[in-house]
Amino acid sequence: MRLGASAGVVITTGSAEDVLTVPTAAVSTTGTRSSVTVVNGTTRTPVQVTKGLQGTSTTEVSGGGLKAGDEVLLVTSATTTSGSTGVPGGGGFGGPGLGGAPGGGR
Asked: Residue 59 domain-assigned?
């Protein structure tokens, strides 16, 4: 390397294949229990999950009968105004082969 040159380094601390991932903002944890809220039309169902590898943007989850393609509610700190009718922050599960970096980019 030349004097004054710089280089980029990526350190992978964990990876997993063939797992379900959700946006980290969709996972709610109280004590040792974690859950996501599955959205089906106007129905919202809390589902207990087991967390695996967790990154800043995605978290690996298992359990609760979750499957690729399920929509989950994102937990946000934003407040809504009176009369809002939208479903805030809907998201979906990532599954194997759905793109992104190998191992979920964690």
From this structure: yes
Give the N- to C-terminal CA distance of the chain in Å, as an integer. 28
Domain assignment of residue 45, given as a range: 18-75
Q: Model pTM?
A: 0.59
For residue 30, CA distances in Å to 27, 34, 48, 72, 73 come to 10, 6, 11, 18, 17
Report how many domains make up the chain.
1
Rounded Cα distance, 104 and 58, in Å: 7
Q: Is residue 61 part of a domain?
A: yes
Q: Please check whether residue 99 is in contact with residue 58, taking contact to mean a CB–CB distance below 8 angstroms.
A: no
Reported as a pLDDT band with limits 50, 70 and 90, residue 49 is very high
Q: For residue 24, how far is the Cα from the chain centroid?
A: 4
Q: How far apart are CA 5 and CA 102, in angstroms?
A: 29
Distance from C-alpha of 70 to C-alpha of 62, rounded to nearest angstrom? 13
Neighbours of 53 (CB within 10 A): 17
